[in-house]
Amino acid sequence: MTQKTQYDIVIIGAGPAGIQAAIHASRKQTRVLVLGRLANSALFKGHIENYAFVGKVTPGRELLEQGLAQINSFGAEHLAEDLLQLSRDGEQFVLDLESGLEIRTQALVLAMGTAKKKLGVPGEKEFLGQGVSYCVDCDANFFRKATVCVTGDRSAAVDGALTLQKIAARVYLVTDKLEIAPSLKRLLDASAVEQINGKITLIQGEKGRGLQQVELADGRKLVVDGLFIELGSKGALELATQIGVALDTDTMQYIAVNRQQETNIAGVYAAGDITGPPFQMAKAVGEGCVAGMAAATYVRDLQRKAAVQKA
């Protein structure tokens, strides 16, 4: 793929909602980039048998790969990278990727789902909100001058640790097998983050007093005030907060949209699991369709206004 840095629409998420948005947006002759890994989709390891026109049990991976081939045939591009930071620059949105590449776009479709992978260890559930967090961008300020630990093997964990070193007194990064871009690894190695090879197997503390320590598989213990579990790429909540996208007022877990899949931020749309239940492919595809067409219309209107102003 030619490494362009300017697109009309960037779709974050390569699941059913993101792929469908890309199909409709690219067919309207807009420059579209789909950002994300197929394996991050909840569909990747699943099977589909309750979707109209799919007459037999079909592996999710097969459907996603077919979808990727479709968007490529319509001219959309795909980049299997994690997004680290999202910001605004005037009417444009700026995306900083794990490779160091900066992408700019006029419109965004947020379609990266909501599920946060969990460690699945004793104490994780008990101390959620009492020292355990899944969102550095949301909760970092609660740990000023504290000792914190981040665990994970991907870019979100490293980016979280680098963010926390500006806030916390001491930052550990516990990782079993780090899989990140070389440029991000260089930033990590040059930082004050203390890298520890291992896996967390136990989270301990006291009710009412919160988290106190984590234990690794080899028996080592780290005395910490906070633990940030970042086992994948940046999630919906983190990215939404970076540009001021509003969440639903009932649960504060999903992105609020209208019938055009518009968020409260002009040029930003959302589709799929990120907008709430039911968590079904049929809903994701339908919302992706609406979001892709709406984003393309938004971009074309901007471009027409710019052309008139130049005339």
From TrEMBL:
What are the alphabetically sorted keywords of the record? Answer: Flavoprotein, Oxidoreductase
Q: What is this protein called?
A: Thioredoxin reductase
TM segment ranges = none
- Report the residue ranges that make up the FAD/NAD(P)-binding domain in this protein: 7-288
Molecular function terms in GO for this entry?
Answer: oxidoreductase activity
One Pfam match: Pyr_redox_2
Q: Does the keyword Oxidoreductase apply?
A: yes
Q: Which domain of life is it from?
A: Bacteria
- The answer to whether keyword Cytoplasm applies is no
Please name the source species: Desulfobulbus oralis
Q: Which PANTHER family match?
A: THIOREDOXIN REDUCTASE 1-RELATED-RELATED
